[in-house]
């Protein structure tokens, strides 16, 4: 989603602002802009489409200045045109915004009635006018912002520049993240630490409701009640290198191949190899007393939740409710007293998941989160933080974060099982051993990269693709279909194998490839029957299974992809690899923008 950067600097800022925007490209955007302050003027340049267009515009019409703000916009209110691109400005004020101003309509009507003229269709422009009105009435920038913030409803991160002040910017956050960065005689604002990585490692994460005045000397932070507050300065740890592609063609490809390392890294903090036990962070809550777990997430993280449901029920005999966050919070869910609510999110900022978390917290639930960004809002609001150690995930389509989530959830399932007396020491030790094997199994799965690349041309021409799976591999079928549609724009559906004959079978013909995920095991025969139903109708099957499964049912398939034979607990992690690679290579074959697919955002901070 939208990315924000602001610099109060001692050198020219335009190029550095654009560089910061480049670091946030991964969030997804459809227009971009910058505004500098120089000689008592606001100098604004904007362009629709990719950042390259803004760079061309800046080459034609440079924006001088030692201070400025910049933005990548993911359209919510108003089409992705230049006039809707940020910064939005009046004579006095320019600002950039991430989030949504929910009450923008009445605000806009009132402003229009007071004679203000609007240039865009955005919700953001009302804030520029509101602040401007106050400045025109003679208020200082600080007092103007102080007067306007309480009028805004919704979620926002803002960075505001003032025509008459070339020594300060004001930032504010409510619902959308914003960080302050400290340099040598320079101070920065950014949506995340990554955007500021080449500028500084010294970061302050603003709290909900905070607003901040940054100058070359530093930052003055105020809370919702306008009291000056001190927030800790931390080392961000975000390095510029972490967001480079290295020898890979795309971030997604790099991230798929990082999985053995990052999953091992993640497991290391949840497993005690010597004792052969699962170890979780200490909490002030008796996990043995839980009667029910509610798991809520969005997108790929929701499919991790689906897998977790199978594991928690099977291993810990613990009833689990799962839901996508956007449905959960509005369906008035029944939350048992003393229950555990678990939220899964790569970013830790997804607006719907965060709102669901707060709903559960208000209802007295204990809050656990599995997040990849340890400084995120969800991480900070949780009672139990279960971090994944996937490192920054830049590709919009989630890959390594997903397998790391599964690693944590598998460890949690085992831990709950032990706590509930459903798993003895020997069983726990066996589970630990299986989890330790995951990185090697992921490597074995990745070894099929070339073969999968070679078969991509079989799938690339398809208009529709079906993915089938059973048990804990059913969510993998959903994930495979999601990956394919996200980055190759081919319509794809995931189905529980047994459900196929209740509808999707009507779609089967020789033009609809069916990808079957079926490790050998007790349910294999049943899935093979479903495959036969496809084949009997002229359908073309790609079977992803182990050597045993392929020997039994591979004949007559359009293609087969052989996975290592693994314990059912770790199969979902391993089978994630071929579906990721298949989607990746099909997208490359189709020539789509793999890392920044159209219309998608990495972190969805609006509801
Ligand atoms: C967006 C991303 C997906 C991601 C989903 C949930 O839709 O494009 O890749 O799975 O949000 O994000 P989260 O950060 O909460 O896991």
TrEMBL record:
Active-site residues from the entry: 2, 602
This enzyme's EC code(s): 2.6.1.16
Broad class of the protein's primary localization: cytoplasm
Subunit structure: Homodimer.
GO biological process, one term: amino sugar biosynthetic process
Name of the featured protein: Glutamine--fructose-6-phosphate aminotransferase [isomerizing]
HAMAP family membership: GlmS
Species of the source: Novosphingobium hassiacum
